[in-house]
Amino acid sequence: MGLSDTSGPRDTQVLLATTETMELRRRDYHVERPLLNQEQLEELGRWGAATGTHQWRTWLQCSRARARALLFQHLPVLAWLPRYPVREWLLGDLLSGLSVAIMQLPQGLAYALLAGLPPVFGLYSSFYPVFIYFLFGTSRHISVGTFAVMSVMVGSVTESLAPDEAFLQASNSTVDEAARDATRVQLASTLSVLVGLFQVGLGLVHFGFVVTYLSEPLVRGYTTAASVQVFVSQLKYVFGLHLSSTSGPLSLIYTVVEVCRKLPQSVIGTVVTAVVAGVALVLVKLLNDKLQRHLPLPLPGELFTLIGATGISYGVDLKHRFGVDVVGHIPAGLAPPVAPSPQLFAELVGKAFTIAVVGFAIAISLGKIFALRHGYRVDSNQELVALGLSNLIGGIFQCFPVSCSMSRSLVQESTGGNTQVAGAVSSLFILIIIVKLGELFQDLPKAVLAATIIVNLKGMLKQFADICSLWKANRVDLLIWLVTFVSTILLNLDLGLAVAVVFSLLLLVVRTQLPHYSVLGQVPDTDIYRDVAEFSEAREVPGVKVFRSSATMCFANAELYSDALKQRCGVDVDHLISQKKKLLRKQELKLKRMQKKLQKQTAASMCTSASNVNTSDRDIESNNVEDSKAKQASAEHKIEDTAAHGQEDGKGPNLLTLKALGLSQPGFHSLVLDLGALSYVDTVCLKSLKNIFRDFREIEVEVYMAACHTPVVAQLEAGQFFDASITKRHLFASVHDAVIFALQHPRSSQVSPVLVTKL
Q1: Which residues pair with 671 in a beta bridge?
Q2: pLDDT at 331
Q3: Three-class SS string for 67-122?
Q4: Any idea what the Cα angle at residue 601 is, between residues 596 and 604, rounded to 5°?
Q5: HSE-CB of 302 using CA atoms within 13 angstroms
Q6: pLDDT band with cut points at 50, 70 and 90 for residue 29
Q7: What is the pLDDT of residues 191-222, one digit of tens each?
Q8: Closest to 199 (Cα-Cα) out of 439, 406, 396, 364
Q9: Are 184 and 116 in contact (CB under 8 A)?
Q10: Rounded to whole angstroms, how far apart are CA atoms 520 and 550?
Q11: For 426-446, what is the mean pLDDT?
Q12: Which residue of 39, 114, 287, 472 is most buried, as measured by CB atoms within 10 A?
């Protein structure tokens, strides 16, 4: 009984669903409208050119509302902070800010080492830029501050321009660390100022769109390669090795080779410290993943590891007993502002632009992800200004370039962060540590910081899975990913990015030059036209060829478009035109010979009649003259009949058809160009379209265009494409309109003889 009771409603539901499907299939829609060409469409829709708005006029307006809008646009905190819902959001932002600060502390110390700087400068870079972004940023969820990719890019600059070998002391051949660190700090802070200037300048001129040239496969391939660079750069801290500074192409390979060669010199205490710290961090992360539903906040594994490692190092004296390298002196308080060194600008300008673009690309991509998820808008140009001011002001206070961290941003969102108040809270917490608690971490082993960096690379190293997914989804994107990864690994971060961008742009050009060309057929009983090679039921309309390109036609592919059109139509247009011209030249020569022969015959007959003076009968003489005139007239009529042979009724004079010349005619009388993919036209495109009209009319095929967008029609008019022979009556609202018109006019009686070869 239970089974029958449940099966009854199910059967009813299936029957209802089937009935609804059949009813939907019966609901065919029928539209009755006149056949529309462009002229009729413009008249019916009352088309008129849109009135252009001059943006520069609004820029030059001066009013209180305009000043207020500009202030809120460039200082967004004034717009959202007065409306901040304290009761609903403050607690979440406080907890989120505290959680982010707990992560920011170890990461700031670790990423400073990655940048080749003393750890305290990582704390500075976790305070100043974060607070500046709180004032100027538009994203509510990203966590600005130190980031592994940016740090390794800064490290490549500092280690190449201030290598250890340049600071060797003559007395004992040891490195003068104080002088080296001072030089590197000056390099990093000057680099940060330059990066900030680039980002602010690009943001003010609304150059935020530049990031669109960094596609997602390119960015992911680049960050994956950068994570490998980060991993390799930390091996010297994990094994306690002293490596020579290398930079430039193949520096990563040289570093790996040197690490492998010096592995026997590893410090056992350092290796054990790094392994224990790494295992502890991994276990805490696994525990967080398992208990994330039950924990209000994730366990701060990095902070626990930092405190525990510092305590053990201080209690056991790891530095002196086991040779473990520690952080060393951390000065209390904030460093005074220092002006950048203009002498370094020339050396750093190229690397600064690369870091500026990469930092912005990472920040805006994360910002847009969170904005989409939470339903607000991120202004890319203002983000560029905000990030630039963070780096510019941070550089003055001896910070190195920063961007957005994915791991901290996810923590900020998941712990209840709603606005950048969470960022301000985290920066204030870091300030307390800088002023009062920083010196407590002097005995922290550097191997623990290296383990923290390596464990946090897990997310970026997982991007190797992109290879499998892109192989299935899009192999061109996979090629971009692989080229970006390999070039970044082999050529270093700055040259690798340049090679990746150039390669992706070249690939874009190649893809525009190799679009998909197709001949369209009509899907039965519809006004829909699809590629006959892909749709088996689509049938070509007899006597009409419909051609379409999947990309716009421009100077780069106009010739390819014309060649593909002539090839797909199945007619050797150029050969047919050349044969026609040869035959016409022969006819012309034949006519000239006949005219010369006629003139000779007339002259001879006139001489004969004039020399016959002995004939007395004047009637006979006049009869001879009349006979010669009659012969001349007969010959002229014969020539005209020959010239007019083969012409169809109603056509202009002096036109010879292919059939009259004995040439094969095309299997279609009309050609329809589907220009729906055309987004703009240039002068080369205009000339190519005119040549198509001319060539196909030479072989007695009339050409029509269809589905042009209104801006394209306006550009055709501006380029003087339409004239007496090509009018807007050759342009139709849809492919179906053009096909119906072509079927109603199977022979192009309106073709102007100007565009056809004359005799």
Answers
A1: 545, 703
A2: 83
A3: HHHHHHHHCCHHHHCCCCCHHHHHHHHHHHHHHHHHHHHHHHHHHHHHCCCCCHHH
A4: 125
A5: 23
A6: low
A7: 999 999 999 999 988 887 777 777 889 988 98
A8: 364
A9: yes
A10: 12
A11: 88
A12: 114
pLDDT at residue 741 tops 80: yes
Letter for the amino acid at 102? I
687 with 561: CB under 8 angstroms?
Answer: no
Token look-up 């019966």 returns: 26
* Residue 418 backbone class (left: φ over 0; alpha: ψ -120 to 50; beta: rest): alpha
For residue 169, with 0-12 CB atoms within 10 Å meaning exposed, 13-18 middle and 19 or more buried, which class applies?
exposed
In three-state secondary structure terms, 144 is strand
Residue of 583, 731, 551, 548 lying closest to 656 (CA atoms): 583
Closest CA to 387 of 369, 365, 371: 365
Contact 252, 229 (CB under 8 A): yes
Tell me, what's the pLDDT at 59? 59
Instruction: Quote the radius of gyration of the chain (alpha carbons, Å).
Output: 40
Positive or negative torsion for Cα 90, 95, 96, 102: positive
The answer to whether 335 and 398 have CB atoms below 8 angstroms apart is yes
Of 403, 394, 387, the closest CA to residue 334 belongs to 394
**Mind giving me the DSSP string for 147-190?**
-HHHHHHHHHHHHHHS-GGGGB-TTT--B-HHHHHHHHHHHHHH
Give CA–CA dist 674/529, Å, rounded.
Answer: 10
Contact 217, 485 (CB under 8 A): no
The conformational region for residue 727 under phi > 0 = left, psi -120 to 50 = alpha, else beta, is beta
Residues 495 and 487: their CA atoms lie apart, in Å, by 8
Residues 6+ apart with CB under 8 A from 339: 396
Strand (E) or helix (H) holding 200: helix 177-204
In 3D, which of 186, 123, 565 has the Cα closest to residue 339? 186
Cα–Cα distance measured from residue 139 to residue 383, given in angstroms and rounded to the nearest whole number: 8
How many residues in total does the chain contain? Answer: 759
What average pLDDT does this structure show over 512-538? 90
- List the structure tokens of 540: 């070509």
The predicted structure's pLDDT at residue 103: 82
Handedness of CA 138, 144, 149, 154 (dihedral sign): positive
- pLDDT, tens digit, for every residue of 37-77? 888 888 888 877 665 555 556 656 677 777 888 888 889 99
- The Cα 228–Cα 245 span in angstroms is 17
Single-letter amino acid, residue 552: T
**Rounded to whole angstroms, how far apart are CA atoms 113 and 151?**
9
Q: Which of the four pLDDT bands, split at 50, 70 and 90, describes residue 620?
A: very low
